[in-house]
Amino acid sequence: YYTHYWHKIQGDLIVSQDVANSMFDFAINAGEVTSISLAQAVVGTKPDGQIGPKTLEAINRFDGGQFLTA
To answer: What is the structure's pLDDT at 64?
Structure first.
């Protein structure tokens, strides 16, 4: 699970553990590309299904509570 899901969503670099857990859970159930794309849509970055520096920064700046209810 670490290699196929947690590592691909860069869970260790996401500041909010709740957000990281939510993305991880969704990646397991829907695939990491879908999980990342939806997270990108929520935080306002280009939904390309890959976590780069801009997406990671946006996820970490975004309010965790609001992310979880989006």
So the answer is: 96
